[in-house]
Amino acid sequence: MRSVTLITALFLSSIAFAQVEQELDSFGGNEALYMKAKALNPEVESEVVQNRFSDRTNRFEFAPEFSGVFGGDSYNRTTNAGLNVHYHITPKWSVGAKYNYSFNNLTPEGKNMVARASAAAEANPKDPNYLFPQVIYQKSEMLGLINWYPIVGKLSFGSWGVAHFDTYLMGGYGTLELSNASVPVMTAGVGIGFWMNQNLTTRFEYRAQQYKAEYYSRNEDILTGVASVQMGWML
Fold first, then answer.
1. Topology (CATH level 3) of domain 59-234
2. What sign for the dihedral angle of Cα 115, 119, 125, 127?
3. Mind listing the pLDDT tens digit for each residue in 34-87?
4. Cβ neighbours of 144 (radius 10 Å)
């Protein structure tokens, strides 16, 4: 009798074990078990990159900027303050304009050259043996722009939140006002924008620009780099 009872108990145990094993094997497809397991660790979340954070179709964006110019005249350093206006035709394309007003300062080398020329002029005013260097500096610029936004995504910063971003390529053409002439200028560059909310974005942009500058009786091709920070507001 005891053996029959033991055999029956073992049989029922094997059936129960088989059922548990089957449920464990199908854990990924068992929604009830999945929800229970997820409840044990609620702070772990996964997110999927979806559509663009903000719909920009047929919208204007105004973006003040501050930028620094690298290269150009070796005796001068230029910084800019300006404004960008973009009209977003689609989420991936926009056209617009950029205006920058320039602030200029002599580099240490430029200051040294001017000091030496001033000293030579004071020592021999009729025939100084050291001339002032010609400094060509930027006064302002106005550009027409076209932007292409091929990549959109977001970065997770853990408990701090998620930053939505998009990258863009830009090109432009316009006029550069120099200290001695007004010349055409071409520009091309790349940038990345981080969305703060549905309307506010921060842009980091780097572009190259090329133009010709006249030094005395010769023209020189000048290639400079411009790095800027912009704060954009979408209407």
1. Porin (2.40.160)
2. negative
3. 555 555 555 444 443 345 556 778 999 999 999 999 988 778 899 999 999 999
4. 13
